Structures are given as structure tokens and as C-alpha cells.
Amino acid sequence: GSAVPGPPFPGGGAGGGAFLGTALGGVRTDGGGRVEAARAAKLTYYLREDGGEAGESRAWLEAFVRDFPDKLKELRLEAVEVTYFTSLSRQDEFEGNTRSVIPLFSVTYFLTITFSVLSCLRLSCVRNNIWLAWCGVLSSGLAVLSSFGLMLYCGVPFVATVANAPFLILGVGVDDMFIMIASWEQSSRKAEKSDTKSRLAETYREAALSVTITTLTDVLAFFIGTWTAFPSVRSFCLYTGTAFVFCYVYVITFFGAVIALNHKRVKGNRHWITCMQVEVGKKSCLYNACCIGSCSSESPEPETSETESEHPMSVFFQKYYGPFLTGRWIKLLVVLLYGAYLGGSIYGCTQMREGIDLRNLASDDSYVIPYYDDDDRYFSEYGPRVMVVIAGSVQYWNESVRNDTEACTRDLENVAYVDKNLSLSWLRVYTEIAESGLININNKEHFINNLSVLFQFYPSFEWDINKTGDEIAASRFFLQTVNVTSAIDEKNLLNQLRDRAKQCVVPLMVYHPAFIYYDQYLVIVQNTIQNVVVAAGAMLVVSLLLIPSPLCCLWVTFAIASVI
Q1: Quick one: 389 and 245 in the same domain?
Q2: 187: nearest Cα among 118, 272, 256
Q3: Do residues 243 and 171 lie in contact, with contact meaning Cβ atoms separated by under 8 Å?
Q4: Quick check: 535 and 505 in contact, CB under 8 A?
């Protein structure tokens, strides 16, 4: 970078050098702390967000984001790299991510339908179960529509994370569909279960327990998640949990009816597309291949018998994989592998670190990613510049009040993450001017009238005082934080500042836009552990109620808990 003559660095406080820690990055200083060079400069422009100008400010920001890239191209900068960010960028990225998910719905449903159709495909045009696949996927889609409609009707907020719910519902719905189809095909092998009513009853007897257990565990897990302190997570859990309920209802009603209708079609020897009866006789080879499944003029088995061959995967698990797992040494090996897996999982949990990478909140090709990279590279030495607000009307002209405020300020400055040399307080400067004998601030009239003297020397302080007539409704001063390098530091900083502000006799509030992210660190670990324990307990209760073997219930609970 080129040489930059100027004020001491770091400076701060009125009457001294300007604090440039948040404006210059990658700096090189001389022995006296003066800036010699800088590799990056951050230019910040403030817009009004109150009153009638808020709309104009938003329009300006939208126009800036839209037009600025073209302006940069016109400048053809070679030696300078420019990245940018606005107060709307993060919210726009959230909304953009939600919109970007919508095209994936069609891709996901197409792939799921394709897989389901291929799984249900048969060579015989009568035994072809393609409609079962279509309707199974359709039932998942109906569950999503029903749950979203109900939640929106009830006024539950639709947040960006809810856009991911359809993918979960589709996976569970298709899984339930295959369980129902497998149970239906199993029922065909029982001679006493020949009519539609008996076979459907047998299907529900076999499949309903599995489907009910999975649905109950899913619904309980998501509804327990609504106990969290985060509104966005509550909305996601409400939408998804309700969708699982609808998915279960559609599977045991709508999809069961589709299975019965499909069975009647097969029993009537009707084509899967036209529903016209297929004649089994001396027809052309092409007709026999399309309608019967082979070129033979006679069907090897009457279509009305609906004899189903076992699926190769069923044969594999039943004849090979099952007996393989029941071997004594294999059981021991499985226990050892599970213990190793559990130990690795626990170790991995201990290595987890709290925190959020803001890059993950934007799309990969977003303009904010380069900005985040530059901000971390050049401006990570200093933490957020925290605003301390004196809320409400305070008698600043009372010397005891000023002393209390100064004591509170010094207490906040004693926080380990605060550099007391970089604080900026209009009241402290105003008091210093008064103590020099230039002005009198010991009564209300003098205090209010002499503010113009302060603003004459320090015009920026006018933005720190909300004055209406002869009353000061609120004011603020700033603390500069340092060494905030991890989520633990961010959590400790927030806790210490809030605790000390709460103990102050003057009504204080600490604020920075980043605190909305720091807040989650205060409760996320407690919420996560609480929800996992409650969910595991609820799943154990469900297993005990629906699974007759207590030992099996215990293993099911262990399996679910270890996955969580």
C-alpha cells in the first residue's frame, strides 16, 4: 500500500488521534505508533432508517447493490480490488437462498419419482405398479401442502429454514410407501389372505407398526424442538412436525386406498395405463411382449392369480445377510464396531466448537463472500465497536449522576475484551470541557444550551444525543472490543457487558448488530442437550409401548440416540 500520513494508530478519544482500527486494515506502523502504510481501507456510509426517509434509504441500497457491479466494471480498476456489503445484504441472501431452493424441488421430486417408478416397474403391463410409485410420491407432496397451508392459516411465520422441510417429508413419505408395498407383496404369499379386504388388513397389520413408530419418533423429535428459544427453529419444527402427521395420515388412508384400487385392476387383468382388460391368447409377439411380458402366446401364470416373485433384495437380506449377522463372531464384531463408532462420535462431539461462519449464510456465488474474506483478513484484529445506550431521561446536569455514569463506563472498560484507551464518550468529553472552566453544566439550562459548544468542537457527537427541545431522551457512547477471536470470546464478552450494565445505577443497554448472533451461544448448548435427552426418553417410551421386546426397545433407543 502507499504511504498514509496521518494520526496516531491506534488512537481514540476526543482531543487525541482518530481511531482507525475499523477503517484501515493490514497496517504498518512506525516505532511511535503512527500509520506508515495500509493494505485495505473500509469506507462506511450511514443512511437514515427512521421516519419518512427509511423508504428512500432502502431504495438507495437496492439500487446500489443492483448498479454498483456495473460501475466497477466501467472503472476498470487494476491495482485496487473492491468488495462491498450493505445492511440489507444478509437479509437478501437469506431470501435468495429460499428462492434458490424452489428449483431443487422439481429436481428432487423428479429423481424420487424416477427411483420409485423403477423400483415398482414390472415387465407385465398388468402387474406394473407404476401408479403406486406416483401416488406414493403424491401423498408426500399433499402432506407438505396440507401442513404448510394449516400453519400459514394459523399464522405461524414462514422462515427461510422451512424451505428445507419438503425434502425431509419426501424422504420419510417414500420410505413409508415402500414399507406398505413390501407388506402388500408379502400378504400375497399367504393362501388364506386372497381377497382384497383380507390382504389390505394383513398389509396394515405388518406395515402399520413400522410406519407408526417412525412417524411418532419423528413427530415427537420435531415437536420437542419447538421448546427451543429460537423462533426460527420453532417455526421449522412446527411446519415439519405437522407435515409428518399429514404424511402419516395420507399413507394409511389415501395410499392404502390406491393399493386396493390397484389390486382390483390387477385382479381384473387390466392394463396399467388404459385399464382395459388384457387378452391372453394367440396374439403377435409385439403384443405379448408389451402386454404379457414375453413373446410367448400363453402367459406362464394367469394374471388373476397375482403371484408375485420375491424381490432380489428381499432374497439377499433373508437368505444371506440375516444368517450372516447371527453368527457368534459376527455379533462380537458388530458390538466392537458399534463401540468404536460410539467412541468416535463422542470424541467428535467434544471437538465441536460453537460459532457461525457468515459465509455459510450466503450462496456460493454471492458478492458478500469476498467481502467476508477481506473483512476477516484485514479487520479481524478488533472486535465490534459496542454501543452503550443510556436509556430514558437522565439528569445529566446533576454531578452525582455524571459521576455514576462515569463509574459505570469505567466498570465496562474493565472488561477483559475492552480497550479503555479507545472508548468514546460525549459525556466524558463534555465534563472535561466544563472542568476546564470554559462552560458551566451544573444546571439543566446551562447543560442543554452549552451542548452547541460541544458540537462546535466535535460535530460527530450530535449523532450520539437524542435531544428533543430541552430534554435528552437518550444518548450513547462507544466501547472498542479487542481479542474477540472465537465464539467463546463472543459469548463471554456479551455476558460480561450485560451483567455490568445491569448492575449500573444508571439505566444502560449494550448493543451491536452482531449480538443477534452472539445471543444464540448463551442457550444453544443447553437447548441441544435438553432436546436430545427429552427426545431419546420419548422415543424409549414409544418403543416400550409399541415393541413387545424390552431388550429390542433398549437397542432401538441406543441406535436412535447414537445417530442424534
Answers
A1: no
A2: 256
A3: no
A4: no
Contacts of 30 (CB under 8 A, 6+ apart): 36
Is residue 135 one of the residues assigned to a domain? yes
> pLDDT per residue over 264-311, tens digit each?
887 877 777 776 776 665 555 555 555 554 444 454 444 444 445 566
Q: Is 265 exposed, middle or buried (0-12, 13-18, 19+ CB in 10 A)?
A: middle
Q: How many residues does the chain have?
A: 564
pLDDT at 282: 52
Number of domains in the chain: 3
Q: How many helices (H) and strands (E) does the chain have?
A: 19, 9
Which amino acid is it at 280? V
Please give the helix or strand (H or E) that residue 384 lies within, else none.
Answer: strand 382-390
Residue 277 covered by a domain: yes
What is the pLDDT, as a whole number, of residue 281? 57
How far is residue 59's CA from residue 308's CA, in Å, rounded to a whole number?
65
Domain that holds residue 492: 381-512
Q: How far is the first Cα of the chain from the last one, in angstroms, to the nearest whole number?
A: 51
Residue 239 and residue 116 in one domain: yes
pLDDT at 67: 92
Does 85 map to a domain? no
- Which residues, including other chains, have CB under 8 Å from residue 224's CB and lie 6 or more apart? 531, 534, 535, 538
Q: Report how far residue 306's alpha carbon sits from residue 12's, in angstroms, rounded to the nearest whole number.
A: 86
* Phi-psi label, residue 439: left if phi above 0, alpha if psi -120 to 50, beta otherwise: beta
Going by C-alpha positions, the residue among 174, 185, 186, 145 that lies closest to residue 251 is 174
**What torsion, rounded to 10 degrees, do the Cα atoms 109, 110, 116, 119 define?**
-160
In this predicted model, what pLDDT tens digit does every residue of 460-513 receive, in sequence order? 899 999 988 888 999 999 999 998 888 888 889 999 999 999 999 999 999 998
- Cell digits of residue 201: 388388513
Give 63-71 contacts, CB < 8 A, sequence gap 24+.
Answer: 65/89, 65/92, 65/367, 69/367
Residue 271 sits at φ, ψ, to 5 deg, of -65, 145
Question: DSSP class of residue 483?
Answer: -
122 and 246 in a common domain: yes
